[in-house]
């Protein structure tokens, strides 16, 4: 029994380690742990212990600047980042004796670095990390006022940053595809959550709160869009870095198939409450719900298989699909005349779910993936990064206006840091840099996120200071405090994206334990708390008073953006029905922009709900806008899901003209909203358009009927869209 027991134990241990390796945060935390442990060992064994704090701060700043890339891209970014870090820390050191020059340096560097965020998320991350390191340099000066040379603290900080950068580049070279697997797994998990949420719309009851379900679905759709963009960027960076071969092609195929799955999952063929009402005494709605939940489970299982580099199980969806098809066949054989139009739409829904099942099966089969990439998809990916210095400057120059969110954030952060430095000089000329650090982390691009971060920062700091006081009291031995500091530094990176209170508490605990090695740790507790409160207050006032981005005042622009993106998506769809199905870059870009605009509207409304009352619009009307946007998008996705069922060019010119007319109306309403012109209510021409389409849809056979039916559903949205837009425009003018 002992050899068998040992073998089983080793197998269980292997699977546990495999699951741990697949956790997204594990590799990040492991790199930070190695870097911090190395720095602690260096300060302990070969140098003064005072080296540890600046080394730690350099490592943390470098880890905060890390963006996912191929190892070549990561090497280039690391070199640029370390150079920027060295320059910024030296400038801080040199300007410290001259407060006026110092504050000018803060203003110029903060504004210019923050404006570089207009070039993309990668540049915004590096800019934020550079500003963080500059403030860390100030903290280093605060604790090492007797440094032997002016370059001493900047050099140690830069060495710490370079040390982590070396680990990062090596890691990206050795495990190039691990981030791709993790991003794809996260995408399939979000799609699974979307399918699970959508299953709630098929609840076989006449008491279903359809609007609340639609709002939840729209918000989950925003998470899917974020996950799709993350996968796109992580794959594109590998392809740009020279990666090629079967493995990257397989991941690219999975991404493209995930896009198709999302399009089918987000499509609608009729208002679901009408289905529930008409088929209340049938089990067909329950069968749809069961199948969707099985497909959601299949997506989650697919995510797990990707993380663990396994081939997932087939799942139970085929049996659920067979049951649904049998239930639908039974209904169709006994269809009453009054239910015939609904049964046709229900048949479209069943066909879409069957196609979705085939897509999920293809995502499991590597051979089918390779085939999909070779024949069905255009595999090019959109690259929105600047192509040259001229292009980069052009993008920044376009944002140099008070109407730009990037400009507003840059101005607020610049003023806040300048005021923070002034308050620091008034309180204590040589201390108080924690005010600037708090201001830098708390001041966010909008009121909602700043308000949340403010209370999280204060709560986390209090938690960390209490924990620090308790632990340095319980464990006065320096060796134990150093171990606690390393563990706290790792915990900061584990929690910083989703549990910011714990992350702030961990980094505060790390600082207390590190500083207790060279100064009295108890003496920094009260000043740190006061500095955090002051920095939070300055950030809150800056966001509230300096060009505030009240989301309610921007809502008409965001709604206009969704309508314009949906108009472009409809035009791309009609071209597909005219020339034939082709998942080319132009079509995928139009689809992505429509979903991204819908996600932006959901985010805007969520932010608006926590703003002060006089800046917040009526919640019910705002949620109706979100439901309207996602409903329209779901009908458009229904058109996209059934591309290829009609031969290219088979439909008459009237349908093309109808689609173009609907797209033009959506664009017209968007223009009126953005320009703050009055939006007219539905006119007779649009009403006649819906009636004519409805009559044609009833008289046309499948598959042309499906195209007509989806256009009817889209056209019926024009009147409520106009009504909501007119109401929104009146509120903007008021």
How many distinct helices? 29
Portion of residues within helices: over 70%
What is the element string, with H for helices and E for strands?
HHHHHHHHHHHHHHHHHHHHHHHHHHHHH
Q: What is the fold named in CATH at topology level of the largest domain?
A: Methane Monooxygenase Hydroxylase, Chain G, domain 1
Q: If you had to describe this structure to a student in words, what would you say it looks like?
A:
The radius of gyration is 29 Å and the shape is globular. Helices cover 78% and strands 0% of the residues. It is mainly α and 734 residues long. The model has no long low-confidence stretch (mean pLDDT 81). It contains 29 helices and no strands. Helix 2 (24-45) packs across helix 7, helix 3 packs across helix 7 (152-174) and helix 27 packs antiparallel against helix 28 (704-716). It has four domains: 13-175, no CATH class; 181-201 and 209-376, Methane Monooxygenase Hydroxylase, Chain G, domain 1; 404-545, no CATH class; 551-733, Methane Monooxygenase Hydroxylase, Chain G, domain 1 (Up-down Bundle), CATH 1.20.58.
């Amino acid at each position: 029994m002992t050899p068998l027991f040992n073998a089983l134990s080793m197998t269980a241990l292997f699977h546990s380690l495999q699951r741990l390796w697949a956790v997204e945060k594990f590799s990040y935390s492991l790199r930070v742990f190695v870097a911090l442990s190395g720095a602690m060992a260096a300060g302990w064994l070969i140098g003064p212990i005072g080296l540890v704090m600046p080394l730690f701060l350099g490592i943390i700043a470098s880890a905060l600047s890390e963006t996912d890339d191929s190892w070549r891209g990561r090497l280039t970014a690391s070199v640029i980042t370390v150079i920027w870090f060295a320059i910024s820390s030296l400038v801080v050191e040199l300007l410290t004796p001259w407060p006026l020059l110092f504050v000018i340096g803060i203003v110029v560097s903060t504004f210019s670095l923050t404006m570089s965020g207009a070039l993309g998320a990668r540049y915004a991350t590096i800019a934020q990390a550079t500003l963080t390191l500059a403030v860390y340099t100030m903290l280093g000066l605060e604790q090492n006022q007797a440094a032997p040379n002016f370059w001493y603290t900047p050099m140690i900080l830069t060495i710490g940053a370079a040390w982590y950068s070396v680990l990062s580049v090596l890691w990206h070279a050795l495990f190039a595809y691990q981030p791709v697997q993790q991003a794809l797994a996260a995408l399939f998990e979000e799609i699974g959550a979307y399918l699970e949420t959508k299953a709630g719309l098929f609840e076989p009851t006449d008491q279903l709160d359809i609007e609340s379900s639609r709002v939840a679905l729209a918000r989950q759709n925003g998470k899917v869009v974020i996950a799709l963009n993350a996968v796109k960027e992580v794959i594109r960076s590998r392809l740009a870095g020279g990666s090629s071969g079967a493995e990257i092609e397989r991941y690219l195929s999975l991404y493209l198939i995930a896009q198709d799955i999302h399009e089918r999952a987000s499509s609608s063929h009729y208002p679901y409450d009408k289905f529930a009402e008409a088929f209340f005494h049938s089990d067909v709605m329950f069968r749809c719900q069961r199948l969707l939940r099985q497909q959601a489970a299949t997506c989650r299982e697919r995510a797990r298989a990707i993380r663990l580099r396994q081939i997932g199980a087939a799942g139970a969806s085929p049996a659920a699909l067979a049951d649904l098809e049998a239930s639908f066949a039974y209904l169709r054989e006994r269809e009453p005349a009054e239910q015939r139009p609904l049964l046709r739409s229900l048949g479209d829904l069943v066909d879409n779910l069957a196609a979705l099942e085939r897509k999920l099966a293809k995502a499991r089969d590597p051979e089918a993936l390779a085939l999909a990439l070779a024949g069905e998809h255009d595999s090019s990916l959109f690259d929105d990064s600047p192509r040259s210095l001229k292009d980069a400057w052009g993008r920044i120059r376009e944002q140099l206006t008070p109407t730009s969110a990037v400009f507003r954030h840059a101005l607020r952060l610049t003023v806040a840091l300048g005021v923070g430095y002034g308050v620091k000089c008034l309180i204590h000329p040589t201390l108080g840099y924690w005010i600037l650090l708090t201001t830098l982390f708390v001041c966010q691009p909008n009121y909602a996120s700043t308000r949340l971060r403010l209370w999280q920062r204060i709560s986390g700091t209090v938690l960390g200071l209490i924990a620090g006081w308790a632990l340095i009291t319980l464990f006065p031995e320096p060796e134990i405090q150093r171990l606690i500091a390393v563990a706290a530094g790792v915990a900061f990176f584990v929690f910083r994206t989703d549990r910011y209170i714990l992350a702030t508490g961990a980094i505060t605990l790390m600082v207390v334990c590190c500083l207790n090695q060279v100064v009295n740790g108890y003496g920094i507790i009260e000043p740190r708390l006061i500095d955090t409160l002051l920095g939070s207050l300055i950030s809150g006032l800056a966001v509230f008073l300096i060009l505030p981005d009240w989301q309610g005042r921007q809502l008409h622009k965001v709604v206009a953006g969704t309508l314009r993106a949906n108009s472009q998506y409809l035009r791309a769809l009609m071209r597909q029905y005219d020339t034939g199905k082709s998942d080319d870059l132009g079509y995928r870009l139009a689809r992505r922009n429509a979903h991204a605009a819908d996600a932006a509207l959901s985010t805007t409304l969520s932010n608006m709900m926590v703003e002060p009352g006089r800046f917040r619009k009526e919640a019910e009307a705002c949620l109706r806008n979100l439901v309207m946007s996602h409903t329209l998008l779901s009908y458009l996705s229904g058109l996209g899901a059934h591309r290829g069922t009609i031969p290219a060019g088979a439909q008459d010119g009237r349908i093309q003209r109808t689609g173009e007319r609907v797209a033009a109306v959506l664009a017209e309403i968007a223009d009126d909203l953005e320009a703050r012109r009055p939006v007219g209510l539905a006119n007779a021409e649009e009403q006649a358009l819906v009636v004519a389409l409805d009559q044609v849809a009833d008289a046309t056979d499948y598959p042309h009927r499906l195209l007509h039916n989806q256009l009817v559903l889209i056209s019926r949205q024009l009147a409520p869209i106009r009504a909501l837009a007119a109401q929104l425009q009146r509120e903007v003018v008021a």
